[in-house]
């Protein structure tokens, strides 16, 4: 069974990444795209070989030939359109962050449960098998007892002052945009939720008052922590390291798919490189959602995970704005 996908908006990630992934997936088919401008929708549909173009999101959701929708809208619109899609009986893949607040995320999850549809947060990196391998290595004791996890995800887009990411009221800022990856990865690898957050941030008046750079610490159980930084006004980095008493695991390219999707295990006996795997995790994500919708697989993570992750982002922002440690 293939899921027939509709795309809500012609956002860059939809045009350049997700639509091609749907078209490459064995279990997906891109059949429609909607925009607030019918002209933009038609142009995108013709360029990408998509059959249908709509001048409103409502028209797309009313199409009975669409099984699922991908939502790459600005963060503050995720809740509204995810719920509307669920009410229309469509499965939902919602771009990260799932929502701006944990309360919004919970409403979305409840709508999905009521409608009986699949609703997933678009953390494509979690579909990569290397993360299960890393968890297995940690569980085996090969790198000893965990001490700390460190990570950085930064890029410099500060010159584009009109970017949608630079609107605080729309859920803009580096913590929502890329810090969410680091928070998600720590929760996945460490196998639990943080108990406290302490974050310092650069809030830029030139960029709508959003956090253009943030650094902090998340405290987990057993005195283990994530020490991280994220930013949209700094040189590019995309890395994770898990440090234990007998070794460490290094991911030079932690989140992006491609030729550098390997990891290195450093131990007292030396080091070994696992990979590269050269997997398209966007395609894997689309196939997995079709399998879940068909009852052939269980979700790797569901809306409850997204609720918890959103709550951590909120705590980080409160800590940065109020300059204090926040308990979760």
TrEMBL record:
UniProt lists the family membership as follows: Belongs to the Gfo/Idh/MocA family.
Q: Where is the GFO/IDH/MocA-like oxidoreductase domain?
A: 131-250
InterPro entries per UniProt: Gfo/Idh/MocA-like_OxRdtase_N (IPR000683), Gfo/Idh/MocA_domain (IPR050984), GFO_IDH_MocA-like_dom (IPR055170), NAD(P)-bd_dom_sf (IPR036291)
What superkingdom does the record give? Bacteria
Q: In the UniProt record, does the keyword Oxidoreductase occur?
A: yes
- Residue ranges of domain Gfo/Idh/MocA-like oxidoreductase N-terminal in the record: 10-119
Q: Which organism is it from?
A: Paenibacillus algorifonticola
**Any idea what this protein is called?**
Predicted dehydrogenase
A molecular function (GO) held by this record is: oxidoreductase activity
| Keywords from the UniProt entry | Oxidoreductase
């Amino acid at each position: 069974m293939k899921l027939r996908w509709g795309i809500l908006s012609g956002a860059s990630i939809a045009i350049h990444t997700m639509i091609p992934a749907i078209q490459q997936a064995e279990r997906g088919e891109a059949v429609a795209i909607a925009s607030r401008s019918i002209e933009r929708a038609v142009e995108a549909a013709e360029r990408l070989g998509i059959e249908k173009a709509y001048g409103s999101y409502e028209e797309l959701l009313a199409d009975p030939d669409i099984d699922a929708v991908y939502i790459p809208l600005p963060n503050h619109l995720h809740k509204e359109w995810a719920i509307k899609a669920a009410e229309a009986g469509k499965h939902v893949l919602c771009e990260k962050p799932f929502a701006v607040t944990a309360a919004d995320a919970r409403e979305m999850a409840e709508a999905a449960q009521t409608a009986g549809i699949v609703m997933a947060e678009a953390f494509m990196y979690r579909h990569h098998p290397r993360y299960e391998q890393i968890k297995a290595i940690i569980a085996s004791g090969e790198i000893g007892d965990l001490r700390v996890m460190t990570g950085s995800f930064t890029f410099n887009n500060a010159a584009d002052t009109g970017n949608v990411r630079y609107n605080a009221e729309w859920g803009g800022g580096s913590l929502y945009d890329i810090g969410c990856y680091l928070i998600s990865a720590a929760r996945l690898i460490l196998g639990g939720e943080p108990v406290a957050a302490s974050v310092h941030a650069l809030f830029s008046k030139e960029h709508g008052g959003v956090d253009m750079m943030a650094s902090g610490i998340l405290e987990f159980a057993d005195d283990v922590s994530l020490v991280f930084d994220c930013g949209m006004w700094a040189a590019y980095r995309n890395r994770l390291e898990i440090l234990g008493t007998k070794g460490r695991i290094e991911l030079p390219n932690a989140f992006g798919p491609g030729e550098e999707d390997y990891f290195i295990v450093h131990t007292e006996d030396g080091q070994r490189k696992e990979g590269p795997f050269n997997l398209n995790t966007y395609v894997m994500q689309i196939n997995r959602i079709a399998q879940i919708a068909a009852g052939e697989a269980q979700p790797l993570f569901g809306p409850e995970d997204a609720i918890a992750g959103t709550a951590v982002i909120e705590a980080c922002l409160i800590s940065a704005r109020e300059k204090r440690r926040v308990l979760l």
